[in-house]
Design brief:
Distance between the termini: 4 Å
Oligomer: single chain
Number of domains: 1
Number of strands: 0
Largest sheet: none
Order of helices and strands: HHHHHHH
Number of helices: 7
Structural class: mainly alpha
């Protein structure tokens, strides 16, 4: 993946750059790149199965790539969650710094329990949407 593009997107998301000499950032870059290139757990063996849920069956997890994709998703989600937690501590609703601040402000202001921005579900949706943007990045030819 083009590190310049990922850094630009990361800057929009959290207002910071990913430093290549930071081991955690380096691992994030590598894992996110693998996630984009592999398309998640989507593999030829997975596509041959009659139903997608079968990829989660214990005997088929490693064959279909589900186990690897699940580990990558978990690492990336934890990485993003750390930034969300940091932003929550220093959030100023009158002066949003980046997209994460805007999302947190919207989550805090939402009272509709059916909204995808409501409470903890809003945070989970934010992380999920971040992970799902990898499909758009791949379609744009950034990798």
């Amino acid at each position: 993946m083009n590190i310049s593009v990922l850094n630009a997107l990361w800057n929009i998301l959290v207002g910071e750059r990913l430093e290549l000499d930071d081991p955690k950032s380096s691992k994030f870059i590598t894992m996110f790149d693998n996630l984009i290139r592999q398309g998640g757990s989507n593999s030829v063996s997975q596509n041959l199965l009659p139903h997608p849920i079968m990829t989660t069956w214990p005997l088929l997890r490693d064959i279909t790539g589900y186990s690897n994709a699940a580990q990558v998703f978990e690492f990336v989600a934890d990485f993003v969650q750390g930034y969300i937690n940091d932003h929550k501590k220093s959030l100023d609703q009158d002066n949003p710094r980046d997209f994460t601040d805007l999302m947190l402000i919207e989550i805090q202001q939402t009272n509709d329990k059916d909204s995808s921005f409501y409470g903890k579900m809003g945070e989970k949706k934010f992380i999920f949407n971040f992970l799902m943007y990898r499909h758009n990045i791949r379609k744009c030819g950034i990798i």
